[in-house]
Amino acid sequence: MDITTIGGIIAALILFAIGDILEGGNPAGLIHISSIIIVVPTSLSAAAVATKQKYVAAAYKELKIVFGNPQLNPEETLEQIIKIAEKARKEGILAIESDIGNIDDPFFRKGLQMLVDGLEPEVIRERMELEIGEIEEYYEGAAKYWITAGETTPVFGLVGAVMGLILALKRLENPVEMAAGIAGAFTATVTGIVSSYLLFGPWGHKMKAKAKDIIKTREMILEGIIGIALSKNPKMLREQLMIYTGKSEAKEA
């Protein structure tokens, strides 16, 4: 669970409610079903129009990394790489074939299999970089959907407010109903802004940020496999790959 996502949303909503209460308002009055229907589904639909179909599906599927954390352990992956590098240097590349089945990461397994199959380092790099590019594009497209939705919701909030005002002005003969209609109209604006800056936009940006961690781990695996192919000294290889774990950055800080 990512406490910054869940906790941030909850804290913001609570603070909105407290502020409204201090001003003499009722937070429940900001929840307007028709405004939500006008703003939220239409914004998500508009974002779908601007996004490739496969990335729309990915956007919802990958929400799990926004509210949770990707199953990444770069330090453990680094140790696996070094262990395999040491074995390959002592016993030869073919000796590591028995270790492939013990690797959980399919990207890592595929790279090692290409190495055992005798592919040249340049060919391995080209194929693995292509796959990394596809992964990067996948998450970029998924995140862009939410960012587009976040950019769209304030506009649909304005549309909802205008629609509500049009209906309210048709009740000039009944000032009480007209006032209630105007108040309801502006809830659409609130819904649009909150959905944009508290939900959809932040979801997209956090998805992009976490995707970078996934990509960085893939890049470490790639460089590790190329290092094994070139029979690099495991100690030197460890130092080279340490930057991908963030440890070197922590030391510099």
TrEMBL record:
Membrane topology: Multi-pass membrane protein
Gene Ontology BP terms: bacterial-type flagellum-dependent swarming motility; chemotaxis
UniProt xrefs under Pfam families: MotA_ExbB
Database matches in PROSITE patterns: MOTA
Keywords of the record: Cell membrane, Flagellar rotation, Membrane, Transmembrane, Transmembrane helix, Transport
Keyword Cell membrane among record annotations: yes
Chain ranges of the MotA/TolQ/ExbB proton channel domain: 102-220
Keyword set includes Translocase: no
Location of this chain's protein in the cell: Cell membrane
Coarse class of the protein's main subcellular location: membrane
GO cellular component term, pick one: plasma membrane
Transmembrane annotation, as ranges: 29-51, 154-172, 178-200
Protein family per UniProt: Belongs to the MotA family.
Name of the molecule in the record: Chemotaxis protein MotA
High-level lineage: Bacteria, Pseudomonadati, Aquificota, Aquificia, Aquificales
